[in-house]
Amino acid sequence: MEKPRIGVYVCWCGTNIAKMVDVEAVAEEIKNVPNVVVSRNYKYMCSDPGQDMIINDIKEFKLNRIVVSACSPRIHEITFRKTLKKAELNPYLFQMANIREHDSWVHTDRAEATKKAKALVTAAINRINYHEPLKELSVDINPATLIIGGGISGITAALEIADADKKVYMIEKSNKLGGYTADIDLTYPHLSSVQQMLGPMIERMKKNKNIDLFLETEIKEITGYIGNFETIITPKNDNETKLSFGNIVVSIGLRSWDPSPLENYGYGKFPDVITSVEFEKMLLSGNIAKKDGSIPKNIAIIHCVGSRNKNYHEYCSRTCCTVALKYANQLRSAFPNASIYELFADMRTMSKGCEELYTITSRKKVVFMMFDQENDLPGIRKANINDNCEMIIELNEKRSRKFVEVPADMVILMVAMEGREMVKEVAQITGVSLDGNKLFIEKHPKLDPVATTTSGVYTVGSCQGPKSIPDSVSQARAAVARILGTIARGTAQVAGTTAHININICCGCQMCISVCPYSAISFDAEKNVSVINEILCQGCGTCVALCRPNAIDIWGCSNRQMTAELTALLLSD
Amino acid sequence: MDSIRKRARELLEKNTVKVVIGYGVGSDNTVRAIFVRRPEGVEELIFDETCVQNLAVYLLKNEIKQIGKLCIIANISALRTILQLASEHQIHEEELLCLSVTPNGELLEFTGFKDIENYISSCNRDLPDKESEMIKKLEKMSVDERWQFWMNHLSRCIKCYACRSACPMCYCTRCQVEYNQPQWITVEATLMGNFEWQITRTMHLAGRCVNCGECARACPEDIPINLLNYKTVLTVKEKYNISAGTNANIDSVMSSFESDDKENFIR
Ligand SMILES: Cc1cc2nc3c(=O)[nH]c(=O)nc-3n(C[C@H](O)[C@H](O)[C@H](O)COP(=O)(O)OP(=O)(O)OC[C@H]3O[C@@H](n4cnc5c(N)ncnc54)[C@H](O)[C@@H]3O)c2cc1C
Ligand code: SF4
Ligand code: SF4
Ligand code: SF4
Ligand code: SF4
Ligand code: SF4
């Protein structure tokens, strides 16, 4: 290996870093670290002049390693790798030291923060001594896309891709398209018809030649990697079909929770306690009535049923508050004289136009009452004959601190949305992880919300977290923009930072295979060792930590590099 | 004893197996492993309650594997080891045949892992009383007392790695202690380095240890290191309801996960 000639660049990030870290002192002191040839500081390293500075130095001083000490690698590692490429240096001869998120932003003592910055930069320099040039693999992209789930999210994605004249395979488990959206009457906040919007979309799906629609079909297994996936499906009444595609959109949505376990509400016991989904169907059919066919005089809507509660689902199901307001409006139009009650825990009407809907609803003689979702849920009992109603809801009203008895002939439970029955299988087949709530995990919650940690696989719509129709549609379109970009490029680069197994050390125990979250490892029975597929491997390091005889290491994040970095940190004062 | 000898002779005469690994009498009347390759050698075989050594450790040795199909005289520890090694893909059904004798003298012959699984499920797999009591005692100690206990013991460790050699699960081509770039565990037998070594060994055996006790028997310094492993045996049983060496297709505790784990750390 040639002798390292390292260039170090300490960024001010405007005042973000410079106000808490003495960047000049850091750059000055770093000059003494072995192998450092150039050390500079600059206002914005990511700007064009900042990057040009690196390019010029690489040429002038024959630098062969670059350390940028700035923000998080999640934001700019790719930027600077490209800078190195421009200067004809292998992009992996680069290391970032994060002195913003890990330092200036979280400290209040300038002297201490400066000390820490020096330690972090020294550690990065120590580490980069062991960096080696890595090769990136390039894979061709099959322009077809597989979409799993034909709700509003999947439909939007399919039409958008098909309109760009690219092939779509749409896999839908049920016998019709539309998902939950197909059962919704009006949508908030403007109470416009959902079916008038969805109907033409479904028609376009059926007519579009670029879309192959497979209803009542499920995916059992997918092989391959970005650009080159394959599956075999058995559509109903049809023969096995092999599909090849380059990208995958997962849009399987959520399902509504069965509230029977929440005994307070007597679902299944009282015939006129129904779920929001059942009520929505009633609205769509145009006939709101009790089980016995009569008209309800007192209607109560209970929020947060099974949501935001440790015992059921800790998260907020996000659309139900506004949907409940929508119901109050629709009920008021249908029954001008009925008593309508909204029993809520917290009113969450965050989307555009929704708070306004709350105000409008509150002027329509709807009674709002609050309860304690965590400790004191309302309870429903059968009314007496002279109560003049079917049921009585008992509740401790939170704001007035009064015990209240609410008469009801119909109770609508705003039930939680949760992962579908097959969600674990779909996660496993597509290589996407689930969180503890059975929601798909995005690649980055803020910066990359539709991609996943498996390249070429996107999750959109409510399966990624409960959401409204417009939010689902936005995610679908975002994923499509990414997919069409990949298709237009024709190839995808696969990062060189992958794991590799030393076949002289591997003892074939195959434990790494079961632990790899990306199914990147397989067993070579002839050689009696495990092997890693470089395209599937995401360099997560799980297998490295597991392997007892240390047969596995990661290019660009080797044990050697990690210990060099850690040693410098531990030795710093 | 006679039944084992008789069957071993048959197997060797018919060339069904190439070698029989069993117990014999060594110098000073100690029990030791013997490798019988000729039919007349079976007369040296013994099997009684003194035969505690876990002979399964020899199954993965290259010298032994090269000989061909083998027969092993297996006590319960060895049978459990065989199942555990099978679940770690280290041995295959067709490579070996096991003979054993029940406490009331009945000869057992296992041809497949299923047979072994069935037999093991009816055997007592609990820790020996002596060790169980020691663990209870250690659990009752304060952290300081426990630290002192292990300091006293581990300060005597000379890093001879006999515990590793005796353990049938320590079959790694290259042990973690043999790395120097980076060096995970110090080479010299210093107190902290000895701790590093034993903690690594314990964690590497968590969920895999079949409580045969071989490691402690091998230790020239009489360090009860098997207690560390036995504690993991109890923990793994309690938390995951898994006992190593009871099934040839067991999921390893350390290498299995559920994608929807309730804990956040996994994400
Ligand atoms: C009662 C109720 C009222 C609502 N009202 C409104 C409203 O007024 N306004 C609004 O904006 N939002 C509303 N929503 C939210 C709205 O329903 C969702 O935003 C929307 O359904 C999300 O669409 P999706 O495509 O992501 O998921 P879904 O609608 O759940 O569609 C998923 C599709 O995937 C299919 N699928 C599932 N698993 C598989 C599999 N393994 N293989 C293949 N296919 C599979 C399903 O059959 C389904 O067709 C309401 C929700 C409910 C429950
Ligand atoms: S865990 Fe290590 S030793 Fe076991 S198969 Fe994987 S690479 Fe080989
Ligand atoms: S680093 Fe190992 S566990 Fe992670 S993706 Fe690569 S092969 Fe799988
Ligand atoms: S750690 Fe000790 S008791 Fe456990 S299997 Fe190995 S030798 Fe036997
Ligand atoms: S201590 Fe660990 S690395 Fe060493 S041989 Fe035993 S299991 Fe393998
Ligand atoms: S056998 Fe005993 S002395 Fe030798 S390494 Fe193991 S614990 Fe230490």
**Percent range for β-strand residues of chain A:** 15-25%
Q: Helix amount of chain B, in percent?
A: 25-40%
Q: Tell me the overall shape of chain B.
A: globular
Count of the domains of chain B: 2
**What is the CATH superfamily label of the largest domain in chain A?**
FAD/NAD(P)-binding domain
The value of Rg of chain A in angstroms is: 29 Å
The helix/strand class of chain A is alpha/beta
Distance between the termini of chain A: 31 Å
Small molecules in complex: flavin-adenine dinucleotide, iron/sulfur cluster
Q: Count every beta strand of chain B, where a strand is a DSSP E run of 2 or more residues.
A: 5
Strand order of the largest sheet of chain A: 10-7-6-14-25
Weakly predicted, low-confidence segments of chain B:
none
In terms of structural class, how would the helical and strand content of chain B be classed?
Answer: alpha/beta
The amount of helix of chain A comes to: 25-40%
Characterize the structure shown:
- The complex is a heterodimer of chains A (573) and B (267).
- Helices cover 29% and strands 24% of the residues of chain A.
- Chain A contains 14 helices and 30 strands.
- Chain A has a five-stranded parallel β-sheet with strand order 10-7-6-14-25, with helices on one face. Chain A has a five-stranded parallel β-sheet with strand order 16-23-17-18-19.
- The radius of gyration of chain A is 29 Å and the shape is globular.
- Chain B has a five-stranded mixed β-sheet, sandwiched between helices.
- Chain B is an alpha/beta fold and 267 residues long.
- Chain B contains ten helices and five strands, in the order H-E-E-H-E-H-E-E-H-H-H-H-H-H-H.
- Chain B is globular, with a radius of gyration of 20 Å.
- Chain B is 39% helix and 10% strand.
- In chain B, helix 3 (76-87) packs across helix 4 (113-121).
- Classes of the chains: A alpha/beta (573), B alpha/beta (267).
- At the A-B interface, helix 10, helix 12 and helix 14 of A face loops of B.
